[in-house]
């Protein structure tokens, strides 16, 4: 995945295999204990130890999670290389300073973190506001996960597979518990106050981040939480807590699985990653692992119809990515394997349409390798070209809406496969703007009728299958 090279995440998601189990306090701090008990109840697991929590004033916390060090020459070169790669696939434009951007994201976006090395929670804020309580619930869930499933081991698995699949699982589970806490543990009044508080926080975040940091970085930061929690909801509604714990013991190895949780339930796995070959004359050729479903979808939805982009992305079976330099330009090579010939044909057409809409079509090559494989090569069009449409920012409502609807249908008793099919069919006639207005759309006859028709269609399909 391209973003892994951003590195520097150590301050936030710091982990190492050093065992410092002696750091656990004998008992919970009195103001934390009730929250810990609530987390145990909602998650359905018991803490093996209490955990230390440290509160920091705003500025001090920001300092902890950002990195002001002047990057070394090598780091600077790496960051520029990745900026060139983002421009090559049309997800960034102009001057991109990835260190500044990741600092901006962390400085305003990170509210707390659980340190898997020190086994402690660090939190922004000194008072127990509702936002702090909710954030603590999230971080306490991480501590609980760590005590039962070993987060360092899960993250090492992600590093080995070059994906963020386990991260989505970890964040999705914590976000699910956080949402349940808001929904079920807060009183009506508290929930209203909390919504006010978080709306204000959200606006501040938007002011500082949106439009200043490339959309793909914001999305990449949020994808694990949003897709992860939708996938956890589907899993829970189908198999309860036991199903969630089972996935923690045998985590997914591809990001795609979290965006398409039916894969998680049906225990489907990706094919072997397509092999990439270093082009002649290429310099500094580096294999960067799985590109990931969220990135394919972003890339396509910047330039082609949202529904077409999602349908093409859905036919994913496996992928791989590489970065290199050619004639002093940064280039990206992507390998795509589809589930079958028809699916691959679909992606092939989507990519050709995408290429036509790129700022410099000469810098992009799409090659159909065989029935099931496609290769894309794209080189940095330079800083002068404007490339970004910001359409991908809105597009994510599509897969998120689908996952949420599928989870709700499973909750109502639909078999997972039928629920997934129904949710997929149900959103097809609606625009992104309509889906973004969600509660209004859900109340329309047009939506309700189409949902019923989709359910009927999918039931017949599953009988035939
Ligand atoms: Zn988290």
**Number of separate domains:** 3
Element order: H for helix, E for strand: HHEHHHEEHHHHHHHEHHEEHEEHHHHHH
Q: What gyration radius follows from the Cα positions, in whole Å? A: 22 Å
Helix content range? 55-70%
Number of strands: 8
The backbone outline, from C-alpha atoms, is globular
Tally of helical runs: 21
Question: What ions, cofactors and ligands are bound?
Answer: zinc ion
Which stretches are poorly predicted, pLDDT < 50 over at least 5 residues? 1-19
- Percentage of residues in strands: 5-15%
Content-based structural category: alpha+beta
Distance between the termini: 35 Å
Question: How is this structure best summarized?
Answer:
Helix 2 crosses helix 6 (130-149) and helix 18 packs across helix 21 (445-464).
């Amino acid at each position: 995945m391209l973003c892994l090279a951003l590195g520097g995440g150590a301050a936030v998601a710091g982990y190492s295999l050093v065992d410092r189990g002696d750091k656990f306090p004998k008992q919970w701090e009195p103001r934390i204990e009730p929250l810990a008990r609530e987390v145990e109840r909602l998650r359905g697991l018991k803490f093996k130890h209490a955990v230390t929590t440290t509160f920091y004033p705003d500025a001090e916390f920001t300092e902890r999670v950002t990195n002001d060090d002047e990057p070394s020459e090598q780091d600077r070169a790496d960051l520029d290389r990745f900026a060139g790669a983002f421009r090559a696939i049309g997800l960034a434009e102009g001057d991109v300073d990835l260190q500044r951007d990741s600092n901006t994201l962390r400085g305003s976006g990170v509210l707390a973190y659980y340190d898997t090395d020190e086994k402690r929670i660090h939190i922004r804020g000194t008072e127990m506001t509702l936002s702090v309580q909710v954030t603590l619930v999230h971080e306490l869930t991480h501590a609980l996960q760590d005590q039962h499933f070993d987060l360092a081991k899960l993250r090492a698995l992600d590093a080995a597979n070059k994906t963020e699949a386990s991260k989505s699982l970890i964040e999705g589970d914590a976000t699910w518990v956080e949402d349940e806490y808001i929904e079920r543990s807060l009183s009506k009044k508290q929930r209203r106050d909390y919504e006010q508080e978080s709306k204000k926080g959200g606006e501040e975040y938007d002011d500082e981040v949106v439009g200043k940091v490339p959309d793909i970085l914001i999305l990449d930061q949020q994808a694990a939480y949003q897709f992860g929690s939708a996938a956890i909801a589907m899993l829970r509604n189908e198999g309860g807590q036991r199903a969630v714990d089972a996935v923690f013991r045998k985590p997914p190895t591809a990001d795609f699985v979290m965006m398409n949780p039916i894969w998680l339930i049906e225990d489907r796995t990706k094919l072997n990653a397509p092999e990439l070959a270093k082009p002649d004359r290429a310099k500094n050729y580096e294999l960067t692992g799985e590109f990931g479903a969220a990135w394919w979808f972003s890339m396509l939805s910047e330039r082609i119809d949202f529904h077409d982009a999602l349908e093409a992305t859905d036919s994913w079976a496996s992928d791989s990515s590489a970065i290199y330099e050619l004639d002093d330009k940064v280039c990206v090579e992507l390998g795509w394997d589809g589930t079958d010939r028809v699916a691959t044909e679909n992606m092939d057409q989507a990519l050709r349409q995408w290429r036509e809409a790129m700022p410099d079509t000469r810098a992009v090559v799409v090659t159909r390798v065989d029935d099931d494989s496609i290769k894309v090569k794209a080189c940095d069009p330079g800083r002068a070209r404007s490339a970004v449409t910001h359409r991908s920012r809105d597009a994510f409502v599509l897969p998120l809406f689908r996952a949420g609807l599928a989870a709700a249908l499973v909750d109502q008793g639909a078999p997972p496969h039928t629920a997934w099919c129904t949710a997929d069919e149900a959103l097809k006639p609606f625009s992104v703007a309509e889906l973004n207005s969600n509660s209004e759309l859900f109340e329309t006859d047009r939506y309700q009728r189409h949902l019923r028709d989709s359910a009927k269609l999918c039931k017949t399909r599953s009988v035939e299958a």
